[in-house]
């Protein structure tokens, strides 16, 4: 018998509403892995101690959520290339004796997207310029998207993200200020909502866009995981677009994290069903 499980987990505040532990442990159980995922409430002033504790106990890695995604970097030994460009870390991986920061939000998004469309050469319209949008934009650009148009309410963050993509990846990028009833430019292949519009409990909030400019053949993705069937997803589906909900991104970013920690490529269906069971 082995009574010593490999430890992983999450450091966040607040932590109680984060369902990640349920989907990750479902994957561990399904694959017969003797691994555990511990959901920890860690305030900012205790983050350094939490990381030291994880090192001391030999954790294989951990996730960082709000408010630690940027501040955790100073406690790590290195960053993966895309996490360095994004400037934020949501997954830390023990490599030998070193703790390396990764960002699986965008990688998970790209893995969720790959089965439904080719990313290479696409023109992307991205709503939002916060943490999720930065991760999605950088990974789409690194995956070969040709052009990313960033649309954001706040001009400063939007312009900064477009400049980052243009400077640090092979894609071209521009910032477009969010005008009322914004039209989706013709030639757009992928539309992504990475704002928090539509997130529970504000489930009736809608993007301010001209819905008639959503066309069949476009891929429309929403980062909002709860509820998964947002107004955007329902409207895009009715317009004949291919849709991708935020649960797909959430499941895939977790699956990428498990792969980085353990090398095991887990069954995403198991994780999605567990999330649906606990959330819906
Ligand atoms: P941030 O707070 O960093 O960014 C929020 C973004 O939403 C900003 O671009 C902000 O614009 C925009 N925004 C918020 N409210 C409005 C509004 N009323 N009108 C227009 N724009 C608005 O959050 P994150 O980037 O971390 O998260 C964004 C969403 O992505 C969240 O809902 C989160 O749940 C989801 N997410 C999903 C993941 C998944 O795996 N499915 C992973 C990570 C995040 P401005 O700059 O003008 O303030």
- Give, in spatial order, the strands making up the sheet with the most strands: 2-1-3-5-6-4
- Beta-strand fraction estimate: 15-25%
Going by CATH, the architecture of the largest domain would be 3-Layer(aba) Sandwich
* CATH H-level homologous superfamily name of the largest domain: NAD(P)-binding Rossmann-like Domain
Most strands sheet: 6 strands, mixed
Give the class-level CATH name of the largest domain: Alpha Beta
What does this molecule look like?
The protein is of the alpha/beta class. It folds into two domains: 128 residues, 3-Layer(aba) Sandwich (Rossmann fold), CATH 3.40.50; 138 residues, 3-Layer(aba) Sandwich (Rossmann fold), CATH 3.40.50. 36% of the residues lie in helices and 21% in strands. It is built from nine helices and twelve strands. It has a six-stranded mixed sheet, sandwiched between helices. A six-stranded parallel sheet has the order 9-8-7-10-11-12, with helices on both faces. Helix 1 packs across helix 9, helix 4 packs across helix 8 and helix 8 packs across helix 9. The structure holds NADPH dihydro-nicotinamide-adenine-dinucleotide phosphate.
């Amino acid at each position: 018998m082995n009574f010593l499980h490999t430890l992983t987990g999450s450091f966040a505040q607040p932590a109680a509403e984060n369902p990640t532990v349920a989907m990750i442990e479902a994957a561990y159980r399904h694959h017969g892995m003797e691994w555990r995922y511990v959901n920890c409430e860690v305030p900012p002033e205790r983050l350094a101690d939490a990381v030291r504790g994880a090192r001391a106990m030999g954790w294989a890695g951990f996730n960082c959520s709000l408010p630690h995604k940027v501040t955790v970097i100073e406690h790590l030994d290195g960053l993966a290339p895309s996490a360095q460009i994004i400037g934020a870390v949501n997954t830390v991986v023990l490599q030998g004796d070193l703790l390396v920061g990764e960002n699986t939000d965008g990688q998970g998004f790209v893995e969720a997207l790959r089965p439904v469309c080719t990313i290479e050469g696409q023109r992307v319209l991205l709503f939002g310029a916060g943490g999720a949008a930065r991760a999605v934009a950088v990974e789409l650009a690194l995956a070969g998207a040709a052009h990313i148009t960033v649309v954001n309410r706040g001009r400063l963050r939007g312009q900064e993200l477009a400049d980052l993509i243009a400077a640090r990846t092979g894609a071209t990028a521009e910032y477009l200020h969010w005008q009322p009833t914004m039209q989706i430019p013709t030639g757009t292949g992928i539309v992504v909502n990475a704002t928090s519009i539509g997130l529970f409990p504000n489930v009736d909030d809608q993007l301010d866009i001209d819905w008639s400019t959503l066309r069949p053949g476009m891929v429309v993705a929403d980062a909002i995981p709860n509820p998964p069937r947002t107004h955007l997803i329902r409207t895009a589906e009715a317009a004949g677009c291919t849709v991708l909900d935020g649960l797909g991104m959430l499941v895939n970013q977790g699956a990428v994290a498990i792969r980085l920690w353990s090398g095991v490529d887990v069954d995403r269906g198991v994780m999605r069903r567990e999330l649906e069971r606990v959330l819906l």
